[in-house]
Amino acid sequence: MWTLDRPEYSARVTFTTCISNVRDDGLKARLQGVTQAVVDASSAFDAAAQQQTLHEIGRQPVVGGIVTTAEMGKVYADRMVKKGAPGRHIYDDIIAAPPQGRCPLCGQRPVSTLDHHLPKAHYPALAVAPLNLVPSCSDCNKAKLDGIPRTSAEVSLHPYFDDVDGERWLVAEVIETQPAAVRFKVVIPPTWDGTLGQRVHHHFKTLGLGRLYASEAAEELTNIRHQLINLRVAAGT
Ligand SMILES: [Zn+2]
């Protein structure tokens, strides 16, 4: 998993931008009325993500007691994702952040969507919170689905908060079959705390990264097969 810089937009700016052109006066008043609740939810998310305790964040089906989960879902879909929507430029900026457009969750496939780190269906106050919006490929997005972390071990890695790039945790083993294959597994560095190690295992398993990397490696081995054979002829095993 790759780390990314946090989005430059605050939860307040994003939410107020998204709801800036609501025409229905009643809905507008209710949405404006939960602005602080949305800001507070983002602050709580920020603190919990740093402590690896996102599983402890409470779920609130009606934001501030007045805006439903469905209404917050529409704020995201109609006022942030939709082309021409007031929040669309923020969506575009967040989705364009990964280098070369690669999904930071798997490091392989192209980014095609924003993943809600905590699903908006269960955490509606975080529906347009930039810290909860992670660029991802559609496969990683689907693999996460609306899963809710029940323990700290089940909290997926988050590119704005977690940095696992500093040490080697992914090990490849060559399987001497015809054709040769490569198997990948997670080996946690001894310097990591237990929770981070459990989360990396969970991330690797939930997103099916072992299968993905084995497939990519098989293709690479096919591509360099003749080169390897020539090397062996020239230099021995
Ligand atoms: Zn991915």
Radius of gyration: 21 Å
Taken together, the total number of domains comes to 2
The portion of residues forming beta strands comes to 5-15%
Helical content (DSSP H or I, runs of 4+) = 40-55%
The main β sheet shows up as: 2 strands, antiparallel
Low-confidence stretches: none
Please report the number of helical segments.
9
| Secondary structure: number of strands | 6
What structural class do helix, strand and pairing data support? mainly alpha
Order of helices and strands: HHHEEHHEEHEEHHH
Cα distance spanning the termini: 34 Å
- Strand order in the largest sheet: 1-2
- Gross morphology is elongated
What small molecules are bound in this structure?
Answer: zinc ion
Q: Mean of residue pLDDT?
A: 95
Walk me through this protein's architecture:
With 237 residues, the chain is mostly helical. It folds into 2 domains: 139 residues, no CATH class; 66 residues, no CATH class. It is 43% helix and 10% strand. The chain is built from 9 helices and 6 strands. The strands form 3 sheets. It has a two-stranded antiparallel ribbon. Strands 3-4 form a two-stranded antiparallel sheet. A two-stranded antiparallel ribbon has the order 5-6. α1 packs antiparallel against α3. It is elongated. The site of zinc ion has 8 residues, from α6.
Topology readout:
Blueprint: H1 11-18, H2 25-33, H3 35-51, E1 62-63, E2 67-68, H4 69-81, H5 88-95, E3 113-116, E4 133-136, H6 138-144, E5 170-175, E6 181-186, H7 194-206, H8 209-223, H9 225-235
Helix pairs in contact: 1-3
The structure holds zinc ion (ZN).
